[in-house]
Write a structure and sequence with these properties.
- The structure is a single chain.
- This protein is of the alpha+beta class.
- It contains 14 helices and 16 strands.
- The relative contact order is 0.17.
- The strands form four sheets. Strands 1, 7, 8, 9, 10, 11, 12, 13, 14 and 15 form a ten-stranded mixed beta sheet that branches.
Length: 463
């Protein structure tokens, strides 16, 4: 290699850098100078930090439960299963003949009893290995039968075959998620300062066109979700919207972001609500949706998707802890690159440059005595734990048995598993909120047992 070649390479690199700088200048982007300016969030009233529920929100757990899982939604599920399979409610009776639950007629009383048993089993959380029997679900049903017959005189407990059929086929499949989400949203008067968009991968390795795989290995069904804070209680979150990609049709991240935007705008505040997302979601399409709906956001950014910003900022961010930002005064958008160190589950350290994007931070003249922070990035890190906390508290509250049957794919059972677990957690969280209680006042198990008893009592009031 001749001596002139390295200088030629450096010359081309300078030319590309100058071209990129001019392009960003023309678009309104400027380097942010932390010595002169500060990037800050607009002032928010303390009353706007958390979700505000409507004033007539039910206070009893059964009324909250039946507001979300209303009689009309339950009947929709019943009829939907019949439309798919006219014989869906057939079961083998003890004498070997075929019978049909309620002759295919929807009866609220029967469904309430089924839900009482379902909630009790989910609350007790006795896993299959915890029952020393070949048929653990049957043992759970018999336990529920003994309980309700002791609790209520003439309990008229449904037969084991009926309950088994309902457990395997009366399912909150993803086709009902939008209706259930609307029930959740209907109790919200105003949103808080932040809502978090995220995804949940529920382990599943059965036959399905919807199975997804994370980069670190687990496979399962992928659910998009939008959560918000009800109070400062670290375990009290409220999931407002959830969706899963339709069967064999991939739902793009931009579509998920669009659904979140609609949800946010349906409860628009006098002050803005900020959507927080990780780097999986921002793309040219999803950012366009956010602009179209005029939704404020703070989001992680994938360095591979935003090449111009990445190429421009990388030379400034060379060591762990370093950061650099560009701000666009025309669009009020900000892009920060931060060189972070992440601890993995072991002792290994992972170092990488992280982009964080925002259209809500304002640039102002720096004031004396301001704390040293990484602008935008620190706000992102603080706000993003909403969905994470909700998912962590779900982890030990799923259905403790296998789902599906010989005539029903396990995928639909897992869809029900996720939806019903979210439903119960939302009911408990709202109940805690409206009754001014804390999570430590009642365990999830005791809450579910109390709710199941009330459901069965309510069923017995129906003639």
């Amino acid at each position: 290699m001749s001596l002139s070649q390295p200088s030629a390479v450096r010359g081309r690199e300078r030319t590309r850098a100058e071209t990129l700088r001019k392009k960003l200048d023309d678009e309104g982007w400027q380097l942010y100078d932390p010595k002169e300016d500060s990037l800050v969030l607009p002032h928010f009233s303390r009353h706007n930090l958390y979700i505000r529920l409507i004033c007539d929100t039910p206070k009893d757990n059964i009324d909250i439960f039946l507001h979300f899982l209303s009689q009309d939604l339950l009947q929709t599920i019943w009829n939907g299963q019949i439309e798919d399979d006219l014989h869906v409610w057939e079961y083998d009776s003890s004498d070997g003949t075929k019978r049909t639950i309620n002759s295919n007629e929807f009866k609220f009383k029967t469904i309430l009893k089924f839900l009482a048993v379902n909630v009790r089993i989910q609350g007790l959380q006795i896993p299959q290995k915890g029952l020393k029997t070949e048929y653990p679900l049957r043992a759970n049903i018999h336990e529920a039968k003994d309980h309700f017959e002791q609790l209520i005189e003439n309990a008229e407990f449904p037969g084991h075959k009926i309950l088994s059929r309902l457990i395997s086929r009366f399912l909150l499949e993803s086709r009902y998620y939008e209706q259930l989400s609307q029930k959740f949203i209907s109790l919200v008067e105003k949103l808080g300062e932040y809502v978090a968009g995220d995804e949940k991968l529920l382990p599943f390795s059965g036959q399905s066109g919807n199975v997804r795989k994370k980069s670190d290995g687990p496979v399962g069904l992928w659910y998009y979700e939008l959560s918000g804070l009800l109070s400062k209680d670290a375990n009290l979150r409220y999931m407002m919207h959830k969706s899963e990609k339709e069967r064999d049709v991939i739902m793009s991240t931009a579509e998920a972001v669009g659904k979140w935007c609609i949800c946010i705008k349906s409860k628009e505040n006098t002050l803005c609500t900020i959507l927080v997302m990780d780097q999986y979601y921002p793309s040219i399409d999803s950012l366009a949706k956010l602009d179209r709906y005029d939704v404020k956001y703070i989001a992680g950014g994938n360095t591979g998707r935003f090449q111009d910003w990445t190429n421009f900022l990388t030379p400034y961010v060379t060591n762990v802890g370093k950061w650099k930002a560009i701000h666009n005064r025309l669009t009020n958008k900000t892009c920060v690159m931060y060189y972070q160190r992440n601890d993995t589950s072991g002792n290994k350290k992972i170092q990488k440059r992280q982009l964080v994007l925002s259209n809500v931070h304002r640039s102002r003249v720096k004031q004396r005595g301001e704390p040293k922070i990484v602008p935008v990035y620190d706000d992102y890190a603080k706000a993003y734990n909403v969905c994470d906390k909700f998912n962590q508290s779900l982890s030990k509250r799923y259905w403790p048995h296998k789902h599906g049957s010989k005539d029903c794919p396990g995928e639909y059972g897992q869809q029900d598993n996720f939806a019903f677990s979210v439903l119960l957690q939302n009911v408990r969280n709202v109940w805690l909120m409206v009754n001014k209680k804390e999570g430590k006042d009642i365990s999830h198990k005791d809450f579910c047992i109390d709710l199941s008893n009330k459901l069965y009592h309510r069923a017995m009031l129906i003639m």
